Amino acid sequence: MVILGSGPAGMTAALYGVRFGLKTVVYEGMQPGGQLTTTSKVENYPGFVEGIDGGVLVDKMKAQAERFGAEVRYGSVTKIEKTNAMFVLTIDGEEKVEAGSVIVATGASAKYLGLPREEEMKGRGVSTCATCDGFFHRGKVVAVVGGGDSALEEALYLSKICKEVHLVVRKPYMRAANILQDRVRESKNIIVHLESNVTELLGEMKLTAIKIQGKDEAIVVEVSGLFEAVGHNPNTEFLKGMVDMDAAGYIQVSSPSTRTSVEGMFAAGDVADSHYQQGINAAASGCRAAFDARDYLQSKSF
Q1: Which residues form the catalytic set?
Q2: Where are the domains of the chain?
């Protein structure tokens, strides 16, 4: 069994797979550990009372899977073909590996605004997950960028724990569901900036303010955090044309299983989840994928 991706979904699948007695190989991909490695502190993953650094958490998951015998390799799968019952995977455009079953756990990459200094501010005020990092800004002023459902949901969530939330919307209107728009308008501490863009990040070691360019003027707003809710891109480019996906590129599975349209291929984590996108949910789906892969492999004779 080959697992693509080393975030919570991939490492949980590896842990279960190797304990099922399967020869289990994990390819870490371009971002070993996945999106959790960009989160400075995770406080909503069960079992860690004081919270835990995101990178440390996935390192522990990796070490646990390796302790039971999972083999973790550095590299990315660039192509997959299926010949009869076997999958042939091309690693980094060169090496060929065969597998009886494949679990795709390549995750999704958050979209960023592409601002100067954005990279250095990640984890120092700039985030793409209010559920993950909002607690650190309790009682403070923050900003959210985006006009869709996710952005408004994050703004509403933050409004319950933060002093003030600035919602920056590029268009002259919000695209989110009407009920979310109504809730935002009714909130006493959400300030909406329509036809506006965040153009600059200010601060030395961490974010302290942002510049918002409106239709007629630019203003500087002091904030402790900026939450960018402008969408995600599932990491499925290498699978296009092989497996069924939705319009956004997320792999479609036969819920509640993790089966894809390709027999023997399963999908877990954010790569098949455009809604929840939480580490704990990814881990749970990794467990299910391992069960599904085991049952499939036991039904075959290779």
Answers
A1: 129, 132-133
A2: 2-110+232-298, 118-228
